[in-house]
Design goal:
Blueprint (H helix, E strand, L loop, with lengths): L1 H11 L4 H5 L5 H18 L8 H8 L2 H11 L1 H14 L1 H26 L5 H20 L4 H32 L15 H14 L6 H16 L1 H7 L1 H18 L16 H19 L2 H9 L1
Length: 301
């Protein structure tokens, strides 16, 4: 990306964004610059197949680090696509659209299937984040207002829901010092308050109607249908896969038999945990009730 910025300065004479918007860049130069910017933003998003770093980063990071990474840092890639790639290189976007669509669809399906093979709770949510962010890229490059707005809404919704899910995992890890699924089960009987919040954010993660993820995914799919129903057919499989791995994770942790051979003492949420969960639940509910809470704010800035 630094090379692209320097080359852009060489051919235009400035890096002022308002000047660049009104500057015509040749077709060949757009292809070169788009590639430079795309590689940087694709890794940051992360887009398939340069997504491998994200699950490893989440596993090694503390709970707060995972929450910040999921809620804020991943969105820089989507912002970069929206702010620079889509506006500065329109001809290159059309040329590379088949590549973007292919990588994004493969990312949605591959990451969703990979979640079902994980035994670490953080890895499950990390691969879920990869699937959702690849769907965001599909919406951004759909070439339709519905798709772009859906991608923006899905990024904000994912930032809230994914951070909450990582906090759920962090609560269990800080108390019982393991994230392996085989050691958990039946928590709904002894941690009902935890199970309630975990269920709320699990439903949001799978795009249950009334949650912000549902609104974002619906707008993205609407934009994809306007542009290419064939891409929509493959991308929509992520809805089914999301419901499968989200339900699978919740039932493995909260239902079944208590694994008392490893964990003998359980206790429910503390007052601090409840405050954090409520802080994340309120914006999720507000965003799920109406899109105006976000769209009005975005239009103001």
């Amino acid at each position: 990306m630094l090379f692209g910025v320097l080359y852009l300065h060489k051919i235009v004479g400035t890096t002022d964004y308002t000047v660049l918007l009104h500057t015509e860049i040749s077709y060949d130069e757009q292809l070169l610059l788009w590639g430079c910017f795309f590689l940087a933003f694709a890794v940051k998003t992360p887009l398939f197949p340069v997504h491998i770093w994200l699950p490893e980063a989440h596993v090694e990071a503390p709970t707060v680090g995972s929450m910040l990474l999921a809620s804020l840092l991943l969105k820089l890639g989507g912002y970069g696509f929206l702010r620079y790639s889509l506006t500065l290189f329109p001809l290159a976007n059309l040329y590379f659209h088949p590549l973007i669509a292919t990588c994004s669809v493969l990312g949605v399906i591959y990451a969703s299937l990979s979640t079902l093979r994980q035994i670490d709770m953080k890895r499950v949510i990390a691969y879920s984040s990869v699937a959702h962010m690849n769907l965001v890229v599909l919406g951004l490059f759909s070439g339709t207002p519905q798709g772009v707005w859906g991608a923006i809404y899905l990024m904000v919704a994912h930032g809230v829901v994914s951070a909450a899910l990582f906090f759920c995992v962090g609560i269990l890890y800080d108390r019982y010092h393991t994230r392996l699924l085989r050691y958990y089960g039946g928590l709904v009987t002894i941690m009902p308050l935890f199970a309630l919040f975990f269920l709320l954010f699990t439903l949001a993660n799978m795009g249950f109607p009334g949650t912000p993820n549902f609104l974002g995914e619906f707008l993205v799919f609407l934009g994809l249908y306007t542009q290419s129903p064939h891409i929509l057919l493959f991308a929509a499989s992520g809805i089914i896969l999301s419901a499968i791995y989200s339900t699978w994770l919740f039932t493995r942790i909260c239902y079944g038999t208590l694994k008392t051979t490893f964990i003998r003492h359980y206790y429910d949420l503390t007052r601090r945990d409840v405050v954090i969960f409520v802080t994340l639940t309120v914006p999720m509910i507000l965003l799920g009730l109406s899109t105006s809470f976000l769209t009005d704010f975005v239009l103001l800035i």
